[in-house]
Input
Amino acid sequence: MRYLRSLGVLSILALPALVGCNQAAPANPGATAYTPRQTRAEVQVVAAERRPLSAVEEFTGDLLPRRRTRIVAEVEGVVKQIPQTGAQFDITIDGRRYSEKLGVSYGQKVAAGDVLVQLDTSDFEVALRMAKAKLAKASADLAELKSWDRPEEVRRLSALRDEAAARLSQAHRDLLRMRSLVASRAITEAEHDEAAMKVATAQAVVDSAEASLAASTAGPTAEAVAVQEALVSQAAAEVEEKQRQLEKATLRAPYDGVVTAVDVEVGERVAPSSDPLVEVMDLKYLIAEFGVPESYVGAFALRNEAQVVAAGAAQPVTGVVVAINELVDPSTRTFRVRVAIDNEIARLKAGQFVTVRLPLKTPGEASPVVPSRSLAFVEGEPHVFVVEGDVAHRRRVETGLTSDGWVEVRSGVQAGERVVVDDPALISDGMAVTVVPSAAEVAAGDSTLQR
Output
């Protein structure tokens, strides 16, 4: 027994020495040597494949009218009348009966050309009469100018010219006689000078008569006619201006529509610089306008159908894409789209909040697609883990359409590359992995073996 105990002690004391004989001494005598075992995760993968996707995406927006017009005063004046074409009400208060037909008010339907507001036209009518009188005077002057060469006028001027010539001839004879008399001193020099002055005067009268006769024969000059025609045109323009001002005193509906605001009363003075007096909208069809992320550029086109659901409406309404803005808003990275919907029976109202369901398709050549569950988000950005060999590498991807559990990958992954699909959030970049078949693959393999 004592021998066995001693042998046991010796064995325990010798064990460290035996271990030391089989292992190299550590470089640092005070440190303990440790080699960690590398972690290898088992993952399932799916190969990215190139195929088109189609999906129905929802966007939110507002309903706009087909047309919206704010009618303002184009001339200054006082509101004389607002046609009483609104609702009729009859009420009795304290035994007294009141009946009145309301003027134009919001919610009222109007036809193109209906009078909405009537200004006082008295001043405009006076101005128009004055302009017409001015035009008549200018037109008469032009007609008289053009009739200058009438025969009776030519004959009258010819007679005046002949009379002036006869007086000139007589003056010449008197001057010759005066010269002989002044030489014999029978008359004074002053009498001779007076005769000479009569000759000069008679000559001037003859020259004037001949000029008038020549002008009458030739008719008015082109310049004179042009000046008078310009005066006629100016007067006609003034008549047109006054007529337009008179017409502008009556504010009419520009098209068939619905009045949505009336901000004026009888007796108010309005001016072109004042606020809109009446607002009219065309609600035959409405426009759903909304923003679409730029990642959907090319995913739909004009005349594509869409479903529009308005707030408070039970059923969607079919619409058509009628406008796609070519500008992407740099602040929101979206572009505006408009969908038109029929509203002939006034089911919806402008300004309502709507949800638009728009079918989208992969634009151009189909991009690779991967299962939606393969995405891992890092700081809000989508990533996938691509298995190369036995190592998983994290990649930033740009996603597009999503449909039936698949997501379009527009960049970051090529078709055929294997991506991790089972809880990629638990995988780290560069981790060693072992690819294992999925349950569906195992079941498919078992089924094949059974056959």
In short: The helical segments are 2-22, 122-146, 151-183, 189-218, 222-248, 439-450.
